What does this fold into?
Amino acid sequence: MEFLTGVKEKETLGIEEILKGGYEGKKVKIHGAVHNIRDMGEVAFVILRRREGLLQCVYEEGKTNVSLKDLKEESAVEVSGVVAREERAPQGFELRLLEIRILSEPAEILPLAINKWKMSTSLETKLALRPISLRNVRERAKFKIQEGIVRGFREFLFGQGFTEIRTPKIVSRGAEGGANVFKLNYFNKRAELGQSPQFYKQMMVGVYDRVFEAAPVFRAEKHNTTRHLNEYISLDFEMGYIDGFEDVMAMETGFLQYTMELLKREYQKELKILGVTLPVIDQIPQVRFDEAKELVSEKYNRKIRNPFDLEPEEEMLIGRYFKEEYDSDFVFVTHYPSKKRPFYAMEDPKDSRFTLSFDLLYKGLEITTGGQRIHNYETILEKMARRGMDPEDIRDYLMIFKYGMPPHGGLGIGLERLTMRLLDEQNVREAAMFPRDVTRLEP
It folds into this structure.
């Protein structure tokens, strides 16, 4: 009888272990994929790709057990060699090869030159060949930075007393209403893919006071733009016992500050690969919706066409205005009109035409929507009646108000949009590992 007692210790090392020191001049064993082979004649450089990055190995004819011509790019290998300091190498050291063991070989030549610093190909080709294009160093760096954003979200909110939750994505009714839902036949019952975890995270405020989730949401919008996806990751939180929706904006500001410091501290390598300059977020200005429209109308001589919503061009101009006037890449736009906000948005007691809600714009693109929610049972029933909604359709959700809820609010952050802006990409698909849009269901 054999038993497993935990993680098995391996003979092979990683780049991080070697970098910690004590291995110079010693023989080590390491795994990796052959990322590139540069044959210089008597000497060749075999570049291995590992999770930590690239490792330069030096191949000398006659000193290893495998001929260079038998080694193919994208082969998985286990190599042994002597560690030598080399400042010009990607990790500051190289491996002088002694043995190569080929673990697997590709069946065909790669359709993309993924070992180039920048792949000279279209976005469409990169997406069609996504499992391969993601092996490129720059593509990998994008999603390591995205990992850092989600990690920052989790770590910061844990530190603020939030509980992480998991909510269903198959629901009987979309939280946002409207026609932009993916409908399902759920054992002969009508169902939808969730547009938002809104109802459930509000329910859980009654349980844990402060909750968050990082999970996919689905919108059946027939947009084919550079800013829309039909499935994206929403970073959601909801918090109870707030004094006002400003508490929610303050919490998001804290998350952004924490996350930028985390990226600066632990993702410097990826930031350098992509040439990213992190924004300074000492403070974020806020402006009312109606005032923002007036400001950009006056400064940029743009006529206000839609008094109830911001058009993409207006968002860009608002971002430009606050960059020029306050040197801020971010701006909170508050008090959106009631007409353009869901039924659960709390109306401004000073003027019911507006809500206690906000969007956060980053470089002129909306990345967050949030606000204070109605927490009084009679008030939410009254608002539903004004909108012609039937309470019976969402009776489970309304249960939380019937049996008592604290003042609360929250938000949803579009992860891909935030990543897109941080990396200065022009298309949100660049910031989605496997994007889903109106034309793409694979890979």
